[in-house]
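Hey team,

Filing this mostly as a record. A colleague (T.K.) asked me to run one chain through the structure pipeline before their review meeting, and I want the input and output archived in the tracker in case anyone asks later how it was produced. No errors, nothing strange. Just documentation.

Input sequence:
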Amino acid sequence: MKRNFRPASLLPQHRRLTKKLREKIRESLSSVLPITLLILLLSLLFAPVPLDTMGLFLLGAALMILGMGFFTLGADMAMLPMGEQMGVSLTRRRSVWFLAGFAFLLGVLITVAEPDLTVLANQVQGVPNIVLILAVAAGVGLFLAAALLRILFRLPLKYILMGLYALVFLLGIFIKPEFLPMAFDAGGVTTGPMTVPFILALGMGIANVRGGDRAQDDSFGLVALCSVGPILAVMLVSLFFPHLANTPAAEPAAAAAETTRDLMRVMGRSLPGYLKEALVALLPIVALFAGFQVFMLHLPGSEIRRMAVGVLYTYIGLTVFLTGVNTGFLPMGGFLGRQIAASPFRWALIPLGMAMGYLAVAAEPAVHVLNSQVEQVTAGAIRRSVMMKALSLGVAVSVGLSMVRVLTGVSIWYFILPGYLIALLLALFTPPVFTAIAFDSGGVASGPMTAAFMLPLATGACGAVGGNILEDAFGLVAMVAMTPLIAIECLGVVYRVKTGRRPAQPPEETGDDEIIDV
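Output structure:
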């Protein structure tokens, strides 16, 4: 008589995986629930929401919680190990040209596949989508190659950033005003949740093989440089397409739904599109890793199987998260913005925007990956909780300032120029690892939650007050990518004052007096 049995070794692994998934979902619940409750409170106090919009919002929040749990677990299992292994392999090959060529190809592929870039391109009426997308992709590719070479040759990041942003602001003088917010927004949207974990791990792998006492400082900074390429690309494109239509693409409205069955149908109709988006975003990374595995890595089958499960989790998580945030949060953001701006309390948009920004950053999947990486690389010297507080404060300020722009029409120049000058000045007094983490955090914080909720909030409010949407509402992503830099660098200054040393040499046993806390 045949007996069906499961190998005993698989049972503990299955239990550990299930336990880890439950932990990740609990973490995502604690991240998404606060912003959900705040939006519900605002809908009761300021803007009674139609039942279909409210139903989609609540269902979207549930999907975001589930999706973020799967995504963060998948990133731990697959995206981070894949990036680190490829970084190690590239460095050991000892070919600068191969490293630069691979980085350029990777940057172009992951940028062309980035869904948020297509959304941004659709807003630029007057420039062919393919021209803008290819220009931005080339910018990311060039700067990713430069970022990897910087690690290899141990070039100081702060001086590179100073030179690049000097070029950015010089070019900004010659472009049309409506292109400036778009250019800075492009720097935020091209670093999406799929690419950030992989790029972070790629840099870590190269820095670890390169070794030396600056390995931790060099582990970060890739996202920072990759965010500059799109800004310069859009600015250069604007010089050849001076006539830009002043009307952005229409904001999608919430689909009508009267029953729970209707809500499920709406989500079901949206799901295939996001399945395709997530697949397109994931495919270039998986294909490149498969090529490395066949020709260079030759990792054991057990590790490949584990990564394959992680890729599946990442795919499921990103699909579910994007479905929830775009179908549920996007129409709610636009509705709240319009209703509050049309009320007698329109100035309440500033403190309310700050509160929503403070809570929304915790719902960005890539933020959790960055915070985890920072805690790991610094051996616990920089805690995840402290990073999250600093990022939340930075994003709160950025959204508040963006609402000031929406209500007053003040040019983004008056915020971006002094903001980056302060950030670059602080880089002279901040430990190098904090500078790299800070400029990385700007690209990480401006993810799907910003694009699908905070930006519609701003465009809805801008339309209600009769402002110029392209000049006054767009640029919010750029602001969200800027203020966390200053917050993290201030944290670095506090660290230097409190400890009198850099976090590059954490003690073997870290006591409470060696940990940054707030």
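Quick notes for T.K.: Confidence is low (pLDDT under 50) at residues 502-518. Residues 121 and 129 are 5 Å apart (CA to CA).
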